[in-house]
Design brief:
Elements (H helix, E strand, L loop, with lengths): L4 E5 L4 H12 L3 E8 L3 H7 L9 H12 L3 E5 L1 H17 L6 H20 L4 E3 L4 E5 L5 E5 L16 H5 L1 E2 L7 H10 L21 H8 L7 E5 L4 E5 L22 E6 L4 E5 L5 E12 L9 E6 L7 E9 L2 E11 L6 E6 L2 E12 L2
Parallel strand pairs: 1-2, 1-4, 2-3, 4-7, 8-11
Antiparallel strand pairs: 5-6, 8-9, 10-11, 12-15, 12-17, 13-14, 13-16, 14-15, 16-17
């Protein structure tokens, strides 16, 4: 019987490299692919940039040579520009805080790469994400949390479709980071000690507002800081500099800690409040994607994460419209942020998730 063919998205990092190694050892026909996603002028300006920088192709090629597998470079620059960079800029200009990794996973690393891979006769694509694909008794695919909670990446993968999950392998999710580095060393992979990338790949210096200004015809203008009563209390640098719950780098001498409570791009105002002003009991979310079930029942209890590093909180889900849900938490949550994802879990399985539209006053 012919070996199953799998295309591994190789970023030049240790996780995707070990994923390729593990699949080869399991008997798959492994093909390595590195995605070119940055426009030429951005590569020139940004430098290395971790998983998507100038060294990614060379590191991935060296790993492929060590494993004795073919390696190709595929151009996804148009998809990345439209689906990730343009989305990132638009959301910040609209006063929201996007998660570009979620968009990249859904539309570039899966939708685009999977489509091309299937045309090449592949049965699966694979990545080095810390998550596990599971087929449930109800016939649906879902994601199970990684064995190591601190590295778990299911939050950023909640939007994958059933078709995508059915053609996905994630071998790294069964191991700890220490295991992965040990296996890389034992396999003599040249990236065994390569550090992990931490920042958003196309903004390696962390200056989101500066990057956004560089992508626009003119810089985002300054405007008014106002308090929760609408009184002007200062001048902000532009709405793209701020996110809900932010305390630092406000430039306000209030005599005590204050926080960004709301962003109003229509009036170019950033609302400043006290600690209690950034806690909410409920949120409304849209663009729902289901994994472990086809839909949810009104009043269903789940554990919800409202940001990547959120530990999760119990909430109940209620229908707001066919593609929207109201999530009511048992306890108020800090800094519910429009544009971020809310992901629902049942135990360590992803039930589904959506995009946060707004916090809801109760």
């Amino acid at each position: 019987m012919a070996k199953k063919r799998v295309v591994v998205g190789m970023s030049g990092g240790v996780d995707s490299s070990v994923a390729a190694c593990l699949l080869q050892e399991s008997g798959y026909e492994v093909i390595g692919v590195t995605m070119q996603i940055w426009p030429d002028e951005m590569e020139d300006a940004q430098g290395d940039g971790g998983c998507c920088g100038l060294t990614a192709v060379e590191d991935a090629r060296r790993v492929a040579q060590t494993l004795g597998i073919p390696h190709y470079v595929m151009n996804f620059r148009r998809e990345f520009k439209e689906r990730v960079i343009d989305y990132f800029v638009k959301e910040y200009v609209n006063g929201r805080t996007p998660n570009p990794c979620i968009a990249c996973n859904r539309y570039v690393k899966w939708e685009s790469l999977l489509r091309r891979s299937l045309k090449l006769g592949a049965d699966y694509i694979a990545t080095g994400h810390y998550a596990r694909v599971r087929l449930l008794d109800n016939g649906r695919y879902t994601l199970q949390s990684s064995v190591t909670a601190e590295k778990d990446q299911t939050y950023a993968l909640y939007s994958l479709t059933q078709h995508q999950l059915a053609h996905t392998l994630m071998p790294v999710g069964d191991y700890t980071k220490e295991d992965i580095r040990r296996m890389a060393k034992e396999a003599n992979l040249p990236v065994a000690h390569k550090p992990d990338s931490q920042e958003i790949c196309f903004v390696p210096d962390g200056d989101y507002a500066g990057f956004i200004d560089s992508m626009l015809p003119s810089p985002v203008p300054p405007g008014d800081f106002v308090d929760v009563r609408g009184e002007k209390i200062g001048i902000h640098k532009g709405v793209t500099h701020y996110t809900i719950g932010q305390r630092k780098r406000l430039g306000l001498a209030m005599g005590h800690p204050v926080f960004v409570a709301a962003i109003r791009p229509q009036s170019n105002e950033v609302v400043i409040g006290e600690s209690e002003d950034i806690f909410s009991l409920s949120l409304r979310c849209s663009h729902l994607n289901y994994m472990s079930c086809e839909d949810f029942e009104d009043g269903m209890s789940v554990m919800a994460k409202i940001r990547y590093n959120h530990r999760g909180a119990v909430c109940r889900l209620y229908k707001a419209s066919p593609d929207e849900a109201l999530c009511r938490f048992e306890e108020p949550q800090r800094a519910i942020t429009p544009g971020q994802a809310v992901v629902f879990y049942q135990g360590d399985m992803v039930m589904g998730g959506g995009t946060i539209e707004r916090a809801v006053a109760e």
